[in-house]
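Progress report, Aim 2. The chain analyzed during this reporting quarter is listed below.
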Amino acid sequence: MRFATILSVFLCLAASVARAGGIEEPGVIAPAAPDNAIAAELFGTTASVTLQRVEAGAPGWTASAGGKVIGHIGSTWEIAGSTGYSGRPLDVLVAVGMDAKIAGARLMRHNEPVLTLGISDADITAYVNKFAGVDLAAPRPDVLKPQADLPDVISRATVSTGVIRDGILRTARTLAIARGLIAEGGGIDRVSFKQLDWEGLLAAGGLTHVRFSMDDAAKALAGAQVPVPAGGGAFLDLYAGIADPPTIGRNLLGQKDYGQAIAALGPGETALVVISSGLHSHRGTDWKQTGEFERLSILQGTTRFVPKVGDYVFIKELEIAGAPPAKEISLFRLPKDIDATEPLRVEVTATRPAEDGQNVNAVIALDYVLPAAFKLAPPPDPEPLWRSIWAAKHVESGIVVAMLTVLTLILFAQDWITRRPRLWRALRIGFLSFTLFVLGWGLNGQLSVVQVVAFVHSLLMQFRWETFLIEPVIFLLWGFVALGLLFWGRGVYCGWLCPFGALQELANMLAQRFGIKQIAVPQALHERLWVIKYTLFVGILALSFYSMHDALVLAEAEPFKTAISLRMIRPWPFVLFVVAILFASLFIERFYCRYLCPLGAGLAIPAKLKIFDWLKRRPQCGRECRLCETKCTVGAIDPLGRINPNECVLCLRCQVIMGDSAMCPVLKRRARAPEGATP
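Predicted C-alpha cells for the chain:
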C-alpha cells in the first residue's frame, strides 16, 4: 500500500511536470501540416500549389494548382493514429493523386529508438520515398509480406518501418475513399464473363424492366390537349442496367461495341444501357438542338444526372439471343458522382401540352440495383498491424512461451532443484546459454529501459495496447516479467531472461575457469555504487518528459542495443563501451547489473510489490555464517544475512549452498553433532 501511494504521487508529479513543461499529450498532439512548398514537393510539381481543408473538422487537405485539384494530403497521425514503439506518434504526410495512386510521402515526426540512433534519417527518407506510385486500388491482405510495388521493411527496424508502411497505406486509402477516388466496397467485376441469353440475363438481374401501358399514360396525362388513347399496348416498355460487367454489357452489345464503350470511360465512370420500345421515346428529338437528354434523368441520393450529347453512344441493335424487338437502344456514360454499385433510379419524363396552356407530365421510374453477382467481393478489413505481426512470428512466440514455461517450472521447483547442485548448475548454464544465443541474438528479445519509459508515458497520456502488442517477443517477455515481479521480484528477468546479463555471467564463468582472480568490492563502496543506476533511471525518465530524443540518447548507457540487438555492428565508441563493460565483468561478476543498469533499477521499484518470499534463510545466516554473502554473484546479501530484493537476480546459488551438507557450515555442524544435541 505504501509503495502504491508513492508510485501514484510520482506519476501525478510526472504528469504535472509534463504539462508545465509544455509536453503535448498524444491525444491532442497536432498532426503535421503541409505548407505549399511541401505540397509541391510531394506532388512533384514546380507549379504554385494551394492547400485547403475540405470542410471544417474533416481530415486532410486538398491541393490545387492552376485552378485544378491535383490531389489530397493527409497525416498518418491524424487519420490512422500511427503510434511507434516509443509510444509517440509516427507522423508521415501522404499525398494521393487523382489517379488513386500515392504521389509522395514525407516523414515529419518520430521518436523511435532504432530510428534515432540505429538507422540514419537518409535510410528512412529513402524508404518513405519509395511509396510514390503505389496503386491504392490494389488489394493489400498483409502489409508485412513482400509485395512487388511496396518497399520492404528495413531490417533491424521491422516493427517501426512496418508501422510506417501500415500508416501510409491506411491513410492513403482513407483519403482515396473519402474523396471518391476508389470505391469503398469491392467495385464492379469487369473481368468475369458468362454467356447468357435474354431470359438468363433478366433472371440474373442484369437488367431491370418496367412497363407503362397506354392506360397508365392516359391516366397520368389526363388533361392534355391531345388525349392519349387508352389501351393495353405499351406507352413505354423500358429496360435499363449497368453495362460494365462483361456478363451484362458484352452479352447485350457484342465484343466490339462493348470494348469500345468501356475503353472510352474515364476513371470512376460507368456505362448505363437503356433499351425501350412503345409509343414514347426515352431519347426524344430535342437533344439534337439542346445538347441534353431532358427526358432522361438518373438519380442517386441527392444527385440528379441528365446526360448530355457527349455522354451518349448510339447502339443499332442487340447481340444477345432472345432479345425482344427494341425501338431505341442507348448507352449513357455516368459520372463518378454516380456509384454504380449502389441503388439508382432511371426516370423518363413524358410531357404533353395541357388545355390551360401549361404542360402535364408523367414520370416513368425504374429502380435498379446491380446484383452482387456482378460485383467484386468487398476487400476484407485489413487486420490490425499487431495481429499480422503475431501471425508472422508465431514460431518465435512459441519458442518464447516454451522458454517461459520451463523457467516457471524451475522457479516453482527450486527447492527440489537446489538440493541437487549438479542439476542446478546444468540448468543454470543451459538456460543462460539459451537466453543469450536464442532469445537475445536469435530473437532479439532484449528488454530496455526505453520500453519502461514508453509505458510510463502511455499511462500518463493515452494508453494503447497496440503500442506494445506490435512486438510479440517483447510483449510476452514483459507480460511474464510483470507477473514475475509480483511472485519473485526483479530477479526473474535480470537473473534468467536478460541476454546481456547472461553474456556477463557466462563470460565470468569462463574467466574463473581460466583462473582470473575475482575482485571483492567492499560492502560500503558496493552499496554506494548502487546510486549510479537508480540515478541513471530517474534521469532518463525525467529527461523523456522534456525531450524524448535526448532521453533516448542518454539511454545509450545501456549496451543492449550494441551487444545484442545490433550484434556489435555499430561505430567503434559503442563497441568499445561494451568491451569495457565485459572486461570489468571478468573480474566483478555482473559488473553492469550491479552498478550501471537503469533497466534493473526501473524493475526494482515495482518489485517492492512482491507478495511471496521464496528464498529461505536461517537464523544463523549472517551471524554464524557468511558463506552465502561471499558467494552471491551480485552482492545482494548484506553482512546480516538479509537478501536485498532490489539487487537479487534469483540465481538460487544461496539456496544451493544452504541445502548442500558439504558446503553449508550449519548443516556440517548438525551432521557432526551428537544425537539429541543442539548444533
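Confidence is low (pLDDT under 50) at residues 1-11, 13-27. The radius of gyration is 38 Å. These observations will guide the mutagenesis work planned for the next reporting period.
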